[in-house]
Design goal:
Length: 193
Amino acid sequence: MRIVKYPHPTLRHKSKPLRRVDAELKQVVAEMLEWMYRDRGIGLAANQVDLPYRLFVMNIESDPAAKDQEFVFINPVISRRTGSVEGEEGCLSLPEIFAPVRRSEKIVLSAYNLRGEEVNLELSGLFARVAQHEYDHLDGVLFIDRLSASSQLAVKQALSDLEAEFHGDRNRGQIPNDQQIAARLAELEALRT
Ligand code: ZN
């Protein structure tokens, strides 16, 4: 497992719900949490580790010791969005890019946890922002898609640099071609979604 960077095609994949929680999925989640903490992130979606699952992990303290802040959301659904607030965001798949994004102020998030239990949470503040950012990933949406025109202009060069890096890695054979990536995602989807 590794974190894929923009413009990796899996980041644009719209994922389907998972069918079950089993030992294999628990292992995936454990590895995702490791990667999130390693890169000092506060959230990580399955797309970002090249997996086509509706699943994300979060810890807004980015501290593995703060277990009460560690959350796993499987097949999440956001309902009851209220208010609107702007705040700075970044993303482990878009390193060193930060920009303000407008999000709902409060949301209700329903999902399954790793025990297969349904959870319903009313979220606000940073927790609500991160959950909306991660939820977007599952639909193939990135925070750079939600920027104002002036912020888009401000990050343009940094995005071009990431694109050049991606194509360089691909030319060196470090990243499979689009068809190979799509075939692997379809295979994983057939198994688990
Ligand atoms: Zn992200």
